[in-house]
Amino acid sequence: MTLRDDFLAGVRDVAPVLLGIVPFGLVAGAAAVEAGLTGAQAVGLSVVVFAGASQLAAIDLLGDGAPLAVVVGTVVVVNLRMVMYSASIAPHFRDLAARWKALVAYLLTDQAYAMSLTRFRENGVSRRGYYLGVAAPLWVVWQICTVVGVVVGARVPAWLPLDFALPLVFLALLVPAVEDAGTAAAALVGGTLATVGAGLPYELGLPLGAVCGVLAGLLAAPVGRALGGVRR
Amino acid sequence: MTATDAVVWAAVALGGVATFAVRASFVFLYERLDIPELAERALGYVPAAVLAALVVPAVLTLDGVPVAEAGLPPAEALRTLLGSDRVLAAGVAAVVAYYTEDVLATIVVGMGVLLALGAV
């Protein structure tokens, strides 16, 4: 397959996911204006930071007049999980030129990471082509939705639970990722701790669940093998 | 009190630089660092752990509030969750995901079930 084919395959795969980020992007734009940011600041935040959960946390804090260090610190903590994405996806992009690596890094999101890594398990896929096919439309739709949110507010019909689409996307990627005792333990512990920690400050529940989930996977893998549950 | 313009722009710039640094970290450093074998194995568990940490709290909500913050006693929280539209819809969607491994089919069925339950 050529670079172009793989780019288009990425675009095709990400299309349903775009639906899921629409309400999220609208809220990011509308919430920024409600918190007292100008339209330019709202769009600036979306373009420069480009990470939804951390944007919403920052908007909240800026609206409350929190100190700069607290705002930036919160953004970093909320995005800290991306260190794991960066490490996990890095081997696939080790041969790229620095400018492509920079683009890959700038566009790294939950969705782009999860979708690409799922597809990278197959051989013969152009990593760069597929990744950009997934990541670039996410960027474009996110920016458009932020602008629309700034201008007209976040008007999603109340009967249409669009906010449920994004968890469904992650669910669709999660199910095939659970393939043995180690990954099952990682998912169980990660999901449980993130749920219990949902009220923690700085959105710490997510990184807490993710890190403990990975540790649980490492611990459970030998147990699974000892029980003969090897399916790889 | 809302932050001043200067603080907002500083937050945008510094938050952006820091976020890029986090994302770029290993993409740039991977070859230069000697990643231990244990860390390599750990990375294999990142997708399952992170995806579950994103999905489960989003499904286990009561009227849009994460269950941990709803303030219900555990037994009652569990009972309410088991009858919740979102949990049922996610359960059906998980079965679809298992058999089809298709994102679109999972979204369509999950949203469809949630809408249908809401209409009942």
UniProtKB/TrEMBL annotation, chain A:
Annotated Pfam families:
AzlC (PF03591)
For the keyword Transport, the answer is yes
Q: Does the keyword Ion transport apply?
A: no
Q: Which GO terms of the cellular component aspect does the record hold? A: plasma membrane
The principal localisation class reads: membrane
Q: How does it sit in the membrane?
A: Multi-pass membrane protein
Record-linked InterPro entries: Brnchd-chn_aa_trnsp_permease (IPR011606)
Q: Where in the cell is it found?
A: Cell membrane
Task: State the UniProt keywords alphabetically.
Answer: Cell membrane, Membrane, Transmembrane, Transmembrane helix, Transport
Spell out where the chain crosses the membrane.
14-33, 40-59, 65-84, 129-152, 158-178, 185-202, 208-228
Q: Which family does it belong to?
A: Belongs to the AzlC family.
Name of the featured protein: AzlC family ABC transporter permease
Native organism:
Halosegnis marinus
Q: What is the lineage of its organism?
A: Archaea, Methanobacteriati, Methanobacteriota, Stenosarchaea group, Halobacteria
TrEMBL record, chain B:
Keyword field contains Transmembrane:
yes
> Which organism was this protein described from?
Halosegnis marinus
Chain segments annotated as transmembrane: 6-30, 42-67, 87-117
What is the name of this protein? AzlD domain-containing protein
Keywords, comma-separated and alphabetical: Membrane, Transmembrane, Transmembrane helix
Q: Out of the domains of life, which is the source?
A: Archaea
